[in-house]
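Lab notebook page, bench 4
Experiment: in silico fold of construct C2
Operator: M.H.
Input chain length: 122 residues
Purpose: comparison with the prior construct
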Amino acid sequence: MSDAYKDMSTYEVLDLVYSASSSSTELIAVFISLLSAYFVAAYYFGNKLRGLELLLLSVVYSVFCLITIAGIYAQVRGMMRLMILIDGPDNTVFLNVYATVMLISWILSLLFMVSRWRLRGE
């Protein structure tokens, strides 16, 4: 851990933790919004898209989702490192499970879009 935090009081560290918590909560809301919008688009328009449209939409969606997941991971990881400074619990397993769930939901949303896209001929 960096020496930058050694002179901070417990209050200052907790303030940083709460700030990181707030930022990660906002990013989680953005991720859920992206995921929901993609599911709605897949349900209503998935069977109407051409191959190139599906590809472009999925690539843009994937880039935004992966950037958001990376941001959430970084925020929560930083928050956990700060919690360890004040003798908080080490919840690294929680962080890894959380990131895995988000990645699986992203993959499932892409699979759902492809399954809707395949229905276009019926």
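Observations: The chain has a mean pLDDT of 85. The first helix runs from residue 10 to 45.
Next step: discuss at group meeting.
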